[in-house]
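Chain A, query sequence.
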Amino acid sequence: MTHPAIPTTDIDSIPAGALILDVREDDEWAAGHIEEAVHVPMAQVPGQLGALPADRPVAVVCRSGHRSGQVTAYLVQAGLDAQNISGGMQVWEAAGRPMVSETGAAPAVI
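Chain A, predicted structure.
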């Protein structure tokens, strides 16, 4: 059984105006995330599908790109313009991109 390629973007090519959807768990989000991102843990995405924009791209991120790849495939199948952010938050952090945390500590990817 073949699967269509999952649309992917790197951190420098996230479409302008895209919603950044962070699908990591609550503790990962709290430790460090992209400030403008929207947090919906992976298991909750199907129930939140109607809340996601159909009129602009969705860039999906997790820690490494695996979970976000699965969510991206699901969103594309549902008809949304979704792309997986290659390398996830690990690449974002390694590139020195800005992050915020909810813990009071310096933001970090866990």
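The helical segments are 26-31, 45-48, 66-77, 88-94. The mean pLDDT is 95.
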